[in-house]
Specification:
single chain, 186 residues, alpha+beta, Peptide Deformylase, two-stranded antiparallel ribbon, 3 helices, 27% strand
Length: 186
C-alpha cells in the first residue's frame, strides 16, 4: 500500500473518461489499497481512480464518522441505473479542488449497479450523503467535476484561481475563510 499524489485542477487528466475494469486482478486490488490509503490520508470520504491518475472506473468510499470504525467500500464499474426527480442540496468539496466548497443540487436518491472486489455484481439504492457521494465519484469516472454543477461564473473563478496558483507552483488558498466541513467528498 502506498499513498499517491492526488491530481488537482487544472490537470487535464481529471477530464478523462475512465475505462471499465475488465478483470479484477492483483493490480486492481493494489490500486484499491492505494486509493483507500490515499483517501484516508487526504482526508476524504471518497476517491475515484482518475484522481490519482489511473483512468479506471474504480471508486473507494468511507462515510464513517471520525469516532466510528472505518467502513471502506469499493465500487468497480459503478453505473447509475436510476436517479430520482426529487433533488437534494449538499455542500460538496473535492480532493482535486482543495479548500473549495459549494452547494450542489443532485438527485435525492439513486440506484447504482457495481462490482465488488470479488467480481460479484450488486445494486444499491442510496439516499442522503451516500447518494451524493456516489454521484460525485461516478461523475469523476466520466470526466465531470462537481464545479460543473455550479454557475459558470463561480466555476470560471475557481478554475482561474487554480490555474494562477499552478503557474506559480503554489498551493491554492481558500476562496473564503468561512467555516467549512472537515472533509472532502473525493
Amino acid at each position: 500500500m502506498a499513498t499517491r499524489d492526488i491530481l488537482v485542477i487544472p490537470d487535464k487528466r481529471l477530464r478523462l473518461v475512465s475505462e471499465p475494469v475488465k478483470t479484477i486482478d492483483k493490480d486492481i486490488r493494489a490500486l484499491v489499497d492505494d486509493m483507500l490509503e490515499t483517501m484516508y490520508a487526504a482526508p476524504g470520504i471518497g476517491l475515484a481512480a482518475i484522481q490519482i491518475g489511473v483512468p479506471k472506473r474504480v471508486v473507494t468510499m468511507d462515510l464513517a464518522k471520525k469516532d466510528e470504525p472505518k467502513q471502506p467500500r469499493v465500487f468497480i464499474n459503478p453505473e447509475v441505473m436510476f436517479a430520482s426527480e426529487e433533488k437534494s442540496a449538499y455542500e460538496e468539496g473535492c480532493l482535486s479542488i482543495p479548500e473549495y466548497y459549494e452547494e450542489v443540487e443532485r438527485p435525492l436518491s439513486v440506484k447504482v449497479k457495481y462490482l465488488d472486489l470479488d467480481g460479484k455484481e450488486h445494486v444499491i439504492e442510496a439516499t442522503g450523503l451516500l447518494a451524493t457521494c456516489l454521484q460525485h465519484e461516478i461523475d469523476h469516472t466520466n470526466g465531470v467535476l462537481f464545479i460543473d454543477h455550479i454557475s459558470k461564473l463561480k466555476r470560471d473563478m475557481v478554475i482561474k484561481k487554480f490555474k494562477k496558483a499552478a503557474k506559480r507552483g503554489e498551493p491554492v488558498k481558500p476562496l473564503s475563510e468561512d467555516e467549512k466541513p472537515s472533509h472532502h467528498i473525493g
